[in-house]
Amino acid sequence: MAMTDHPETSASSSPAEPAPLPGPPASIADGVEHPLDPRALTVQRITAWLVIAPILCALSIGLLLLLWLAPLLLWAQILLGLAGLGIASALVWSAHRWPEISHRHAAYTVAPEGIEVRRGVLWRLVIHVPRSRVQHTDVSQGPVERAYGLATLAIYTAGTDHAQVDLHGIDRATALAIRDHLVAGEGDDAV
Q1: Is 89 in the same domain as 112?
Q2: Same domain flag for 150 and 163
């Protein structure tokens, strides 16, 4: 008996099936360390420039007024100009380069028993929040985060040390999934 190819069988394996949408995995509590969303780097840079640009403008205007109005010797003007240039360079570096360094050292892990947040460049910080300690959570978006589809998950815990743990720079759908995982209880209502 010869086997024939049925059209119903070949149609089910067609490449026209839609690809799964990107987003959080089926179970957010996979126990795997996840880096922050790559879009968070752009958001951090934009936020840094929004803070540093007015400071640079004020520094430039103040320095120009001081050099123009104050009767300083030439060597003092040169020294003051170099100091202003050094401060401006440090601010520009911190707005553009520091977010990249900080982003490399930030990650989170969601496990069935809780969440662990890692961050810090010079001083590393690892915060583990068990689900049993979570009081409530908030998912918020600033205007720049909203434009890039990111959110901040704020986790409020019982106790005084790390009573609020913020996880910046994650996809909004992922933040909502983590929130749902952390606040979903096993039927116990702790007071």
Answers
A1: no
A2: yes
Intra-chain end-to-end CA distance of the chain, in Å? 71
**Comparing C-alpha atoms, which of 190, 147, 135, 191 is closest to residue 172?**
147
DSSP H helices in the chain:
7-12, 39-69, 74-96, 98-104, 143-148, 172-183
Q: Which has the closest alpha carbon to 63: 90, 82, 89, 91?
A: 82
What are the beta bridge partners of residue 154? 138, 166
Structural domain harbouring 138? 104-183
The pLDDT of residue 11? 44
* Mean pLDDT, 10 residues at a time, the chain of 191 residues: 46 47 65 94 95 94 85 84 92 94 95 94 93 92 96 88 87 95 66 43
Query: Quick one: pLDDT at residue 81?
Result: 87
Spatial neighbors of 81 by CB under 8 A, at least 6 apart, are 63, 67
Query: In terms of domains, do 170 and 110 share one?
Result: yes
- Give the model's pLDDT for residue 67: 80
